[in-house]
C-alpha cells in the first residue's frame, strides 16, 4: 500500500476521532494512533486542505494550526462530512477477534460474557471476515482460571497442584501469585514460590488445581522480566544436540541459538536452563537425538534410561512372553 | 508528492460521499482539487488508480448509472451507510475487555491492525477502559512468512512456497489463519493436490510469494471452515487404542490425568505403582511421552508400545556417559 493510502486510511479515523475529542493533546493522539507527533502534524496539514467540493474557504476542514504548534493541542472543526469513521477493514476486525479469543482462554469465566459481547458486536460489524482467523491458546481449566484470577486480583496466597513437566511429578507449591501472562500460545502464572523463596513461572494448563490457603499474599517486589524464560535457577548453557530428520521439529519448537544441517539430520544448539528439562527431552526423543557437546549434559538421560530398563527387567517379561 | 496525493484521495472520498447521485468522471475532474491541470490521458490513469486505491482501503466506491436506461456515462458514489461504522454500544465491562485486547499483540502486523481497529472505535465514541492489573499478554508471530500469508488470506490472494523440503513447491489459496499454542497455521485449498490442507508456517522452507490477483477465489462458509479446521487439526486426538501403564506414585501427571485407574489389573503392579488405562492414537508419540518419565511409568500392554519404549530407552542407555568416556 502506498504511503498516501496508509495516510488516507488513518485520516478516515483521525478526523472523526478529533471531532470526538476537541482540545486533545498532540502526544495523546500520537500514542493512540501509534504514530509520531510529527506524523500527526503532517496528517493535520493534509486535512487542512480537504473538504467539500468547491474549495471555497467555508468548505474546508478547519484546524487551529497555531494551537497545534504552540500548545500542542488539536482543535479540528467543519468536518461534519466525516462525522463517523470508516468501517473496519478485514485485517482490523480479524486481529481484534484473535486478541479477544486469546483473552477469553485466559480470563476468569466471570468475564466471558463481556468478551462474548464484544465478539458478537464485531461479528455484526464485520460479518464473515471475522471467521478468517482462529486463535487457540494453552490455558488453564475454567476453575483454575477463575481461582487464579481471583487470587491475583485480591492478593491471596494459593496452594497449587502442579504437574511439572521436567520434574515429571506432581508437586504442591505454595505461591503468592503476581499475574497471569500470555506468552505466544500459552498462559503462565507468575508468582513467588514460598518453598523455594524465589520467582517461579507455572504453565496454567499444568495446574491441576489451585486453592486459596486463606492467607494474604506477601509482598516480594516485582518479578524480573526474564523469569518466564528461565524456570531454573542458574544461567542457561548452550547444548548442541544431534537430531534425526524425524525430530527436526525440536529446532522449531524450542528457543534455539542456531540449527545446522548435517549428513544424517541436523545439529541444534539449545539454550538449556534446567538439566531436568534436557533429560526429559532426550528420553522423549530416544533414538532420534543425542548430545554432541558438552557430553556431560546427556548424563542425566543416560542414567535415567538405564534405571528404567532395569525396572522393566525387575518387573519380568512383558505379556508377550 | 505524497501530501498532494493524500489530499486528492481524501477530497475524492468526500466528493463521492456527499453526492446522492452517481458522479461522472468529468464532473469529478472539475471539482476535486488535484485533477485540474492533468491531460486527458493522465487524468484517466490517475483516476483509475485512485479509485482502486480507495477500494483497497475498504472505501466502498460504487459504480452505476443515474438513468434507468444506462444511456448516460457510468458515474461513482459512496453510500454513506456502506462507508460509516454503524453505531457501537459497549458496556463498561466490554470496554475493559477492549482495553485488554489492545495489549495482546507484540507482533507488528497484528498490533498495528488492533490499534487501527481500536482507533476507529474511539472515533465512534467508544473508549476502552484501563484493564485490571495482573494480566499481561504478549502474542507474537515470529514465522518469517507470517505477514505475507496473513495479508494474502485477508485479501484472498493465492500464495506459493516450498514446504518441508526446499523445492517442494505448494500453491495454496489461503482461507483461514490459525494460531495453535503459539504456532501459526494456514488452512487453504492446495491447488496441486486439489484438496483442503493445513500448513504450518514454520515449515515453509522458502520465501512466500503471492500468485495472481487479490479476490481471485472465495473461501467456503465459516461452518465448513470450522469443520475443516477441526478435521485437519494436527493436535486432534480421537484415542482409538488403550495403553495399560503402571505409574509410580505421583509420576507422569499428564498421563495419569488422561487415563483411568484400572482397579483390577491382570497382574499386580510393582509396589508403589498404580495401573492406568490411557487412550492414544500414535504409538511413537505415546512412547516418547512414556520414556520421558523414565522409571516412573512401565508399559504393561500393548506389546508394540512396550517395544517402542524399550527400544528408545536402549538407544539412550547405550550412549556413553561422560565419565565412561573420560
Key terms for this structure?
heterodimer, A: 321 residues, alpha+beta, Arc Repressor Mutant, subunit A, SH3 type barrels, 4 domains, six-stranded antiparallel beta sheet, four-stranded antiparallel beta sheet, 10 helices, 15 strands, 38% helix, 26% strand, elongated, B: 326 residues, five-stranded antiparallel beta sheet
Q: Any overview of this molecule?
A:
The complex is a heterodimer of chains A (321) and B (326). Chain A has 321 residues and is of the alpha+beta class. Chain A has four domains: 3-82, Arc Repressor Mutant, subunit A (Orthogonal Bundle); 90-132, no CATH class; 142-223, SH3 type barrels, CATH 2.30.30; 237-313, Alpha-Beta Plaits. Chain A has ten helices and 15 strands. Chain B contains twelve helices and 13 strands. Chain B has helices at residues 2-18, 25-31, 40-56, 80-83, 92-101, 108-123, 146-155, 222-231, 253-258, 283-291, 303-317, 322-325; strands at residues 23-24, 61-64, 75-78, 135-138, 158-162, 169-180, 183-190, 195-200, 209-211, 241-248, 260-261, 273-280, 297-301. In chain B, the strands form three sheets. Chain B has a five-stranded antiparallel beta sheet with strand order 8-7-6-5-9. A four-stranded antiparallel beta sheet of chain B has the order 11-12-10-13. Chain B has a three-stranded antiparallel beta sheet with strand order 1-3-2. In chain B, strand 7 (183-190) and strand 8 (195-200) form a beta hairpin. The model of chain B has no long low-confidence stretch (mean pLDDT 88). At the A-B interface, helix 1, helix 3, helix 5, helix 6 and strand 5 of A face helix 1, helix 3, helix 5, helix 6 and strand 4 of B. Strand 8 (174-183) of chain A pairs parallel with strand 4 (135-138) of chain B, so a sheet runs across the interface.
